[in-house]
Amino acid sequence: MTVENTAIYMDNSATTPVRKEVAEELIPYLIENFGNPSSIYDLGKTSKDAVENARKKVASAIGAEENEIFFTSGGTESDNWAIKGIAFANRNKGKHIITSSIEHHAVLHTCEWLEGQGFEVTYLPVDKYGMVSPEDLKNAIQDDTILISIMLANNEIGTIQPVEEIGKIARENRVYFHTDAVQAIGHVPIDVQKMNIDLLSLSGHKFQGPKGCGALYIRKGTKIETLLHGGAQERKRRAGTENVPAIAGLGKAIELATSEIEESNKTLLALRERLIKGLLKIPKTHLNGHPTQRLANNVNVTFEYIEGESLLLLLNAKGIYASTGSACNSSSLEPSHVLTACGVPHEIVHGSLRLSLGKMNTEKDVDRVLAILPEIVQKLRNMSPLTPKENRTL
């Protein structure tokens, strides 16, 4: 039985199903075309060609050159490589890094680790919508600033940052600019030249590609250390035998996703607005993130007087799959650092729900969620000692 037939999946920010066309692209490299790309015989050359073809597709999708694309195991590795690589390669110039308070933990925890290695990190605040102020960024730049790392779109609340303006500021100050674009690929058109991006992280499973495969764009001429040492793969910049099937799949996935952005966003935006409008009819419900400058598939709301974990369990019992925030932090009981940074009051921050739409979702799915959620929310409020009498039902 498949998810499509048994449940409503609205957690596409956590991961997406692999498209049929993508699976068809990668399967041959699991079976008959299994050669090692480093081998000189024909079977190896077939695999090598698949890797280079995928590299060409990734480069084309973001306006880069082929030799500026390096395949990795995913977004976390790409973020680590970009930040640590720049930090250690340029520490003679300076040890100051600027990021934001709402970055993915792959960025935040890497920056925290670097602080233990003697680097200084400035964590920029955000406004109530999760938006970084370009003015704050300008004021944070020091003589020894070597890197700015600001995500393109937030994984929890969907807010899209003014990346082009940030890139311009970084370029004017001769500071490297890295952006975590993991959530943005397939939703936001990206041109690394126009946006003045020096390094960009992406991950295949966020745009209907395979898990465990991503890429890092590194602008030609960027001074960066290698993260993984060993063989000569990826032009001696990222050792390890290439994951050929996944790379082939990622190439196909990004080609499809970026070519369909306009059409896809039109459909998703209509579903998103229908969902937001319905959710905000539930009393004491608040929309998180920017009302318009947000990903077309992202809905994040906070319900007062309830716990998000209980909400997810009851939704799951009804066959609805959703999230309270980042899938990478689902085992933590700590409140969302993103919502906290946006100023969501501590007493309600635990009552958040993220619904992230995908190609498989329909108006019927949205309407079913809107029919089920109010009852679940009220049930939890009736059980909560925090709920005022006027917000309870008998």
Notes on the structure:
By secondary structure, the protein is an alpha/beta fold. Helices cover 38% and strands 13% of the residues. The chain has helices at residues 3-6, 20-26, 42-62, 75-89, 105-115, 134-140, 163-172, 233-236, 244-259, 261-279, 308-317, 337-341, 363-383, and strands spanning 8-9, 69-72, 96-100, 120-124, 145-149, 176-180, 199-203, 214-218, 285-287, 298-303, 320-321, 352-356. The longest helix is centred in the first third of the chain and has 21 residues, at 42-62. The radius of gyration is 22 Å and the shape is globular. The mean pLDDT is 95.
In CATH, what is the homologous superfamily of the largest domain?
A: Type I PLP-dependent aspartate aminotransferase-like (Major domain)
Beta strand count: 12
Q: In the residues, how many domains can be counted?
A: 2
Write down the overall geometry. globular
Instruction: Give the proportion of residues in helices.
Output: 25-40%
Give the biggest beta sheet.
7 strands, mixed
CATH topology of the largest domain: Aspartate Aminotransferase, domain 2
Low-pLDDT ranges:
none
Number of H- or I-type helical stretches:
13
What is the C-level CATH assignment of the largest domain? Alpha Beta
